[in-house]
Specification:
single chain, alpha+beta, five-stranded antiparallel β-sheet, D-amino Acid Aminotransferase, Chain A, domain 1, 2 domains, 254 residues, 6 helices, Phosphorylase Kinase, domain 1, seven-stranded antiparallel β-sheet, binds thymidine-5'-phosphate
Length: 254
C-alpha cells in the first residue's frame, strides 16, 4: 500500500492526506479516552462502529441540507472528508440535564430542560476545553457574528434531526457535541459540520429502560462499550443483527 502522509493524530482519530487536494482521510481508532485522556483503553471494534454510525448521521444531514465535511465512507475504519479549517469551539446542545451541566448547575441528571440549551467550549486540551461565552468568541475572533448565527441555527437543526432519528429507534438524545469547519469556496468561508458525530460525542439513553448507550458506559464503568455501540448501530440499521465487529479467532480442528 502506498505510504500516506499523516496530518494529525488525535485521541480517537487519525487524519491522513486525501487522494485529491482539499480531501482528507479520517481513520477511526479503537482508542477510548475520558476526562481529558486521564482514563484510556482500547475497545476493540469501537472505530468500526463509530465510522458506520458517523456515516449514517453525516449522510442524513447532507441529505436534509445541513452541510457537512463528509464525502463517503471508504472502508471499515476510514471515511473521505473535505478538508476544512476547524473553528476552535466544541458546540454542545443539551436537551436533558447530564454530565458537567448537572454538576455546574446542580440540576438532577435526567431533568428535561425547558428548551435545547447550546453551550460553547474553547477547544484546547491543555485547558480542559473550558466553557466560554459569545463575548469571548467575539473578542478573540474565534468566529464572526455571522458564523455564530449560522452555528446556532445549524446546531439546532442537527439537534432536531438527530433527536427524531433516535426517538424513532427508542433512544433519547440527551446531549451531544459537534464541531464546525470552514471551507473556502471562491475565498468565501462556508461552515460545515466537521469532525464526527457518534456515541463518543453524544449521550444516548434507552427511552424505556434508561440504559446508557454512549461513552458514559466507559467513563463510568457501566458495562461493555462495544455492546452499547453495537446496539445503537443495529437499531439504526447500519449493522445487520447478529454481527460483531470484533473478529473472533477461528478454531482449527474443532
Ligand atoms: P459534558 O456534560 O461532559 O460537558 O459533555 C457534553 C456532551 O459533549 C456529551 O454528549 C459528551 C460530549 N463530549 C465530547 O464529545 N467530548 C468531550 O471532550 C466532552 C467533555 C464531552
Amino acid at each position: 500500500m502506498a505510504r500516506r502522509t499523516k496530518i494529525y493524530e488525535g485521541k480517537a482519530k487519525i487524519l491522513y492526506e486525501g487522494p485529491e487536494p482539499g480531501t482528507i482521510v479520517q481513520y477511526f481508532k479503537d482508542d477510548a479516552t475520558a476526562f481529558n485522556a486521564e482514563k484510556k483503553a482500547l475497545i476493540e471494534g469501537k472505530g468500526v462502529l463509530n465510522n458506520r454510525i458517523c456515516e449514517f448521521f453525516m449522510n442524513g444531514l447532507n441529505e436534509i441540507g445541513v452541510p457537512t465535511h463528509f464525502i463517503k465512507r471508504l472502508n471499515m475504519r476510514e471515511q473521505l472528508v473535505k478538508s476544512c479549517e476547524i473553528v476552535p469551539l466544541e458546540v454542545i446542545v443539551r436537551n436533558w440535564a447530564a454530565g458537567s451541566f448537572t454538576k455546574r448547575l446542580g440540576i438532577a441528571e435526567g431533568t428535561r430542560l425547558p428548551r435545547p440549551i447550546v453551550e460553547y467550549c474553547y477547544k484546547d486540551d491543555s485547558l480542559g476545553d473550558p466553557l466560554v461565552t459569545e463575548e469571548h468568541i467575539a473578542a478573540f475572533g474565534w468566529a464572526s457574528q455571522q458564523e455564530m448565527d449560522d452555528i446556532l441555527s445549524m446546531a439546532l437543526r442537527v439537534n432536531d434531526f438527530m433527536s427524531g432519528l433516535m426517538l424513532a429507534v427508542g433512544i433519547r438524545l440527551v446531549d451531544f457535541k459537534i464541531e464546525f469547519g470552514r471551507i473556502f469556496d471562491d475565498e468565501f468561508p462556508r461552515l460545515v459540520i466537521a469532525d464526527e458525530i457518534s456515541p463518543d460525542s453524544c449521550r444516548l439513553w434507552d427511552i424505556k429502560t434508561g440504559e446508557k448507550l454512549d461513552k458514559d458506559v466507559f467513563r463510568h464503568d457501566l458495562g461493555n462499550l462495544n455492546s452499547a455501540y453495537t446496539e445503537v448501530a443495529q437499531r439504526l440499521g447500519v449493522m445487520p443483527k447478529n454481527t460483531s465487529v470484533v473478529q473472533k479467532p477461528t478454531l482449527v480442528n474443532d
